[in-house]
Design brief:
By secondary structure, the chain is of the alpha/beta class. It contains 8 helices and 7 strands. A 7-stranded parallel β-sheet has the order 4-3-2-1-5-6-7, with helices on both faces. α1 links the parallel β1 and β2. The longest helix is centred in the N-terminal third of the chain and has 16 residues. The protein is globular, with a radius of gyration of 16 Å.
Length: about 220
């Protein structure tokens, strides 16, 4: 990982709005519960005046959470980050700001995740990351920000929104990894689990860093 791609460790402004990055699928899933959860998260964000950072897609759960929050809080409340290659994959092309909020196009997947992290770090208290249901991409994003938390690259919370037990397998894997000695007991709650939108937001607000988190210097020398 290039240190030039890592945000500095300056404290975020307490006057900035709470900013939460949501990782989720570009498909709706088979159960209507998943899209319903995306909408419920948007409603809770609107109630608490939370800004959304997301993957910039217009389809599936990505589109649902962004479109719903824009309808409730306006386009200024949503910022999508999408690589140029994926814009061409979008059925509707470039997302319309009045429907999906601001969109920033980047060159690579890593630039996308780095910018997401920077925006979350710049947010006010309670900022962090929430993983709704998703596939390989959602899992990869989730694991990267979890690793970045462990390494001291950012200090924001991470929560799984466990819709209909979707993340139960991952929760079991974390427990197994702790039991096998590959994740420290004190790091078990680096990733929290909640089954309601309000619970996810509250968990980020009350998040406590693991005592085993590394305090490394990621400033470029």
């Amino acid at each position: 990982m290039s240190t030039s791609m890592v945000a500095n460790n300056s404290a975020p402004s307490t006057t900035a709005p709470t900013t939460i990055c949501v990782f989720c699928a570009a498909s709706p899933g088979k159960s209507p519960s998943h899209l319903a959860a995306a909408r419920s998260l948007a409603h809770v964000f609107a109630q608490h005046k939370i800004h959304l950072i997301y993957g910039g897609g217009t389809m599936g759960m990505m589109g649902e959470v962004a479109r719903t929050l824009v309808s409730l809080s306006g386009p200024q409340s949503v910022h999508g980050i999408i690589p140029e290659a994926l814009v061409r994959h979008e059925a509707e092309g470039m997302p319309v700001e009045q429907m999906f909020g601001k969109t920033t196009i980047v060159g690579t997947m890593h630039e996308r995740k780095h910018l997401m992290m920077q925006l979350v770090r710049a947010g006010g208290p309670g900022s962090g990351f929430i993983a709704l249901s998703g596939g390989y991409g959602t899992m990869e994003e989730l694991m990267e920000v979890t690793t970045w938390n462990q390494l001291g690259i950012h200090d924001r919370g991470i929560v799984l929104y466990n819709v209909d037990g979707y993340w139960n397998g991952l929760v079991q894997w974390i427990n197994d990894a702790v039991g096998a000695g590959f994740v420290k007991e004190t790091a078990r709650d680096t990733v929290l689990v909640r089954d309601t939108a309000e619970g996810c937001v509250a968990a980020l607000r009350d998040y406590r860093l693991s005592s085993s988190r590394l305090k490394l210097d990621w400033e470029q020398k």
